[in-house]
Amino acid sequence: MNIKDHIIFNTISIFVLKNFKILKFSIIEWNILLITSIIFSFFPDIDHPISSIGNKLKFISTFINKFFGHRKITHSILFLIIIYFLSKYILYKNNFYLNKSIHYGIILGCINHMLADMLTKHGICLLWPIKFKFKFNKFFLFIIIILIFLLYTYNLHQ
Predict the structure, then answer these.
(1) Cβ contacts of 123 within 8 Å, gap of 6 or more
(2) What is the biggest distance separating any 2 CA atoms in the chain, rounded to whole angstroms?
(3) Phi, psi at 134, each rounded to 5°
(4) Into how many domains does the chain fold?
(5) Torsions phi, psi for 157 (to 5 deg)
(6) What are the pLDDT tens digits along the chain (158 aa)?
């Protein structure tokens, strides 16, 4: 999946969260969350030297790719756990009021990247180091889109 597809997928999923009022944030917090999630929707591809982020961080990207491969550790639940605790530790050392929206943006950006890559035929190793690949088929995607549309329509009439 390319960078444009990740941005589109991420932006749509954040607007779904906002529309269903799943998170109670102000407009400023939503904008911060959206921007942060877009930036971090590229982050799992740090394992691929020719990706947009991998190209900018060539040394790190080449190292990760050589030892783990593409769509392995950086596309796993283990990676999400590491990113969750690392970003939480860094952000919550200060009492900056936007920390929660930045933290959610980091995690949601990475999750959205992984979900989008699960839509490709290659899938991802979500349970790395177990090599089983997780992927969605097109029918599943169609059902999800219909459900979101129905929920959105229902939400409009509440």
Answers:
(1) 71, 117, 133, 134, 135
(2) 52
(3) -100, 135
(4) 1
(5) -95, 10
(6) 788 999 999 998 998 888 877 788 999 999 999 999 999 999 999 999 888 888 898 899 999 989 998 889 999 999 999 999 999 888 888 776 678 899 999 999 999 999 999 988 899 999 999 989 998 877 777 777 777 777 767 665 66
